[in-house]
Amino acid sequence: MAVAETLDARQRVAWRTPILVLAALAGAALLARALSGAGIGAARTFLLVFGSLLVEALPFILLGAAVSALIEVFVPASVFARLARLPRGLQMPVAGLGGFAFPVCECGSVPVARRLLLKGLHPSAAVTFMLAAPILNPVVLLATAIAYRGRDVMWPMLIGRAGLGLVVAMAVGWVVGSKTRAELLRPDRGLQVHEHEHGDAQEGRWARYFGQLADDFTMLTRYLVVGAAVAAALQTFLPQDVIGRVATTPVLDVLALMVLAAALSLCSESDAFVAASFVQFGMASQLAFLVAGPMIDAKLVALYGGTFGRGFVRTVVIVVFSVTLAGALWIQVAFG
Amino acid sequence: MTDRRAVSSLRVATAAALAAWAGLFWFLLISGRTSLYLSSRTAWVVPTGAIVLTMAAAGRLATLRAVRRERLTPRTSWALGFIVFPAVVVLTLPPTALGSYAAARRSLSAGFAGPALDTGDRVTLAAVAAGVWSEEARRALIDRAGSPVTFEGIVTRREGSPADEFVLTRFIVSCCVADALSVQVRVVGAPPGRFEEDQWVRVSGTFYPVGREVVVAAGSVRAIPQPDDPYLNV
Lengths: 336, 234
What we know:
The structure holds 2 protein chains of 2 kinds.
Chain A: H1 2-37, H2 41-74, H3 77-85, H4 88-96, H5 106-118, H6 123-132, H7 138-147, H8 154-175, H9 181-184, H10 192-199, H11 205-237, H12 240-245, H13 252-264, H14 271-276, H15 283-292, H16 298-307, H17 312-335
Helix pairs in contact in A: 1-2, 2-5, 2-11, 4-6, 5-6, 5-16, 6-8, 7-8, 8-15, 8-17, 11-16, 13-15, 15-17
Chain B: E1 6-7, H1 9-31, H2 45-62, E2 65-66, H3 74-92, H4 100-105, H5 125-133, H6 135-143, E3 148-156, E4 165-173, E5 181-188, E6 200-210, E7 213-223, E8 232-233
Parallel strand pairs in B: 4-8, 5-7
Antiparallel strand pairs in B: 1-2, 3-4, 3-6, 4-5, 6-7
Helix pairs in contact in B: 1-2, 1-3, 5-6
């Protein structure tokens, strides 16, 4: 009798939180509708931009998680062992061009890179892949060519984006090269999947596949929601004409567009059209926008924070900003 | 031999979260609300997302039984609720597009260079947008000064402007609403006090480029419902 009562009480406790969560969701939905319907322009703009960023990015997150789970469950470890045996100097450029085989955007490349890292790829190579794949892939390069079609700077922009993107990604890979996998990944989340995969050995392949996919999806979406909210808030409350004032100041204009790219958090598949619209800014600034944007932005910083250990975001920001600034200015002098 | 594996509440909750997002994508597709968030160029993301999310939810539903006991902890419940929250919000939003609040913050004055902005045979708002940043497009507009035009957009107002004037605003979207830029024309000779801010209108009249601005002398101004494609897509 007492046992039955304890079980009953435990079940009640187990269901209490999901019911509270559903009630909170209903409340939030009513509030959002009331705010948007009440003609509050800022609320409407924020919710539309927030929603659009998520609708555009979420399928890519899921596709990235699907590719990542495929690698985990169906690609034999021997493939990665062979890749991992390549000299480090060769692993990095091969990984940098990996986007042509796995055309993932920046949200999708994070789970794929983490999986490659767990599969034994050198940290330098995994990080190089993560940063280069969103730029060095056919979809993004085609979008860039279309955005700059008919302009003198089309080829310098296209080659500059691909070349500088690879150089910056390899520079970050080289800087983090001295770290081990355990040092690089966040101990609580980044390595967690690796731990429980041993316990799941009795599960079927498809159960493991969907388990991995769901794990990656729920973790990355949490950070994407935070990033999209930050980006939408910046877009809603920061007047665009403020940006125009810095466009004519050398070096500051390049830095400004890199910071703007980080704030806007656009997908690399779509950012070339926005970059091409900043006609007041020079070629170096636009190039920096296109190289640094897919490597650092509000949503990515959140995704990196959920995957990698402390200090990683700082390293990426410093290396990406400094190498991109130097490279973009050099390309402008050489080809602009 | 009986299957001793139990249905995992964690997997049920995860499948529900995936299904909620899949539901949103199907809703956007069926209701035609994709155009409120994405341009026609990136609209393919919605059917793709709907199919992939449905497959992921179905896959999780098909593998609900776990070998080990898996518990849905309160922490995981809140985390799943957090990722479902935006889907629920977008589902419940009224179908309205960007309005006058965004118009002031998303000025086209920084320039625009979409791939398909030419002046064409007819003077369109896209041609007006091209004229803001391109000297060639502006000259083409000047050549057509005095031509009849019909523009659709929302009413926005500038402080201190006469009662018979307003600014007609339309947003240009390249990929998603996050990159929306406003193209604006000044409408003069409109019926005073008839149109409120954010009202969708169709203005027919004669257009004149004045410096970097385009002025339309209104022949008729009619209120219209929000179009199916509220943004200009390039």
